[in-house]
Amino acid sequence: SDAPKVEEVDEDEEKKKTDKKKKKVEKKEWEQLNKTKPLWLRNPKEITKDEYGAFYKSLTNDWEDHLAVKHFSVEGQLEFRAVLFVPKRAPFDMFESRKKPNNIKLYVRRVFIMDNCEDLIPEWLSFLKGIVDSEDLPLNISRETLQQNKILKVINKNIVKKAIELFQEISENKEDFNKFYEAFSKNIKYGIHDDSTNRDKLAEFLRFNSTKSATEMTSLKDYITRMKEGQEFIYFVCGETKKAVEESPFLESLKKKGLEVLLMSDPMDEYAMQQLKEFEGKKFKNITKEGLDLSTDEEEKKKQEELTKANEQLCTVIKDTLGEKVEKVATSQRLSSSPCVIVTGEFGWTANMERIMKAQALRNSGMGSYMTSKKTLEINPTHPIVTELRKKVEKDKSDKTVKDLVWLLYETALLTSGFNLDEPNTFASRIHRMIKLGLAIDETETEADKPEDDIPALEEEGGDANEMEKVD
User: Fold this and answer.
1) HEC profile for the chain?
2) pLDDT band at 351 (very low <50, low <70, confident <90, very high)
3) Rounded CA gap, 119 and 105, in Å?
4) Which of 183-197, 228-242, 366-380 has the weakest average pLDDT?
5) Average pLDDT over the chain, rounded to whole?
6) How many beta carbons lie within 10 A of that of residue 45, not counting itself?
7) Mutual angle of helices 384-395 and 312-322, in 10-degree steps
8) What pLDDT, on a 0 to 100 scale, did the predictor assign at position 188?
9) Which of 96, 348, 417, 469 is at 20 to 30 A from 238, Cα to Cα?
């Protein structure tokens, strides 16, 4: 019959058959394209000089290699890493007011934030280039909150400390340090003027020519090792050029006594030395200012007192002649071959500083009235010119030639002491008259067609062609 056929089906067998069918499963894997770590996160011992060089060039667009590099990390209360480079040469616009305040790029956890953060490093270190990567600054930082952030102040302090360590490392190689100092000496001096905390450390990097090392620059430490026994001060002189300070009349007595003097011809030296009062316990002494005492024993002091007393009358006559031009007239200890020199007060501007300030295009002209120092004319009591002048004064106080000679001495002393003449034409007229007297030219012949000026002609007196009439 057609009765239905019943088959038993094994469920497990069926399941196995269906499992054997292939299924497509999609798996997603992320491939990291930039597998290299940022250079500042790597161990400095593993990084080659070429890698630093390539990084420096890509960071700064400089065509030259760097002079030195400092790669460090700071951990503790705050955490940051930094790479600082010292270039081989100074940028052309280093002290321009409108340029970027610095060349340090600020990152926060590998994310670039800004490249002109003013609080990151002080202005005197603006030549440093590199990056700083902080772990503690917030990522959503704005310029306003950045300025108020205390973390930046700590980073600033650490960068200055590490920069000074870097300069110390450079100074161990004489050739590299010479290159560094030639390019960035102004920054070091600016730092001395600006950074009171690190002033003493920065003073160790200063280099100057001196009367005992004219060709090679000397450090302050080396100067101290050469100081004479009993010498209290580090003597220095500032001027416009190296040649001018080398031949300065202020050096005469100090050279004679074998005392070394530092020769400074950079305008920044004047600013730095105003702040740098001493080094390793030895005070600085500017030899162009009053109060220089070179007497070493009682005999010398006694001799100086006698010379002062002998020239009192001459000093009074000179002061009366020059009037308000000088504060006082005194005998000098600092001269040996020059007849006179003009020194400035201890707390005012020197002649060199006065010249620098007058050259400032946007200067405050009112400042000069109270900062310009009072001038003191110091005469050399042993010089033949001064000796003869003294004899003339003792013989006749109202001698007509004395006044003109005093004015000539004063004006030549202004020039040799680094000052500018207020009335160069008057000085030139005096010199021209002396030339005419020397050449025995009759004054009336050459001046006949000219109108009378403020300075009357010199006349021969008593047949002596070398004596001169009183000149206003």
Assistant:
1) CCCCCCCCCCHHHHHHHHHCCCCCCCCCCCCCCCCCCCHHHCCHHHCCHHHHHHHHHHHHCCCCCCCEEEEEEECCCCCEEEEEEECCCCCCCCCCCCCCCCEEEEEECCEEEECCCCCCCCHHHCCCEEEEEECCCCCCCCHHHHHHCHHHHHHHHHHHHHHHHHHHHHHCCHHHHHHHHHHHHHHHHHHHHHCCCCHHHHHCCCEEEECCEEEEEEEHHHHHHCCCCCCCEEEEEECCCHHHHHCCHHHHHHHHCCCCEEEECCHHHHHHHHHCCEECCEEEEECCECCCCCCCCHHHHHHHHHHHHHCHHHHHHHHHHHHHHCCEEEECCCCCCCCEEEEECCCCCCHHHHHHHHCCCCCCCCHHHHHCCCEEEEECCCCHHHHHHHHHHHHCCCCHHHHHHHHHHHHHHHHHCCCCCCCHHHHHHHHHHHHHHHCCCCHHHHHCCCCCCCCCCCCCECCECCCCCCCC
2) confident
3) 12
4) 366-380
5) 80
6) 6
7) 90
8) 92
9) 96
Instruction: Return the exposure string of 109-128: e unless at least 16 CB atoms fall within 10 Å of the residue's CB, then b.
Output: eeeebeeebebbbbebbbbb
Place of tokens 């420096």: 56
Q: Helix 150-171 and helix 174-194: axis angle, to 10°?
A: 140
**What is the four-CA torsion angle of 222, 225, 231, 236, rounded to 10 degrees?**
-10
**Dist CA 154 CA 150 (whole Å):** 7
Asked if residues 450 and 429 have their Cβ atoms less than 8 Å apart, the reply is no
Burial of 302 (0-12, 13-18, 19+ CB in 10 A): exposed
Is the pTM higher than 0.70? The answer reads yes
* One-letter identity of residue 136: D
Rg of the chain (C-alpha set): 38
Chain segment 310-328, per-residue pLDDT in tens: 888 888 888 888 888 888 8
Q: Which residues on neighbouring strands pair with residue 81, listed in sequence order?
A: 73, 133
Question: C-alpha distances in angstroms, 341 versus 175, 180, 237, 375, 408?
Answer: 40, 37, 14, 10, 12
DSSP-derived pairing of the beta strands 68-74 and 111-114:
unpaired
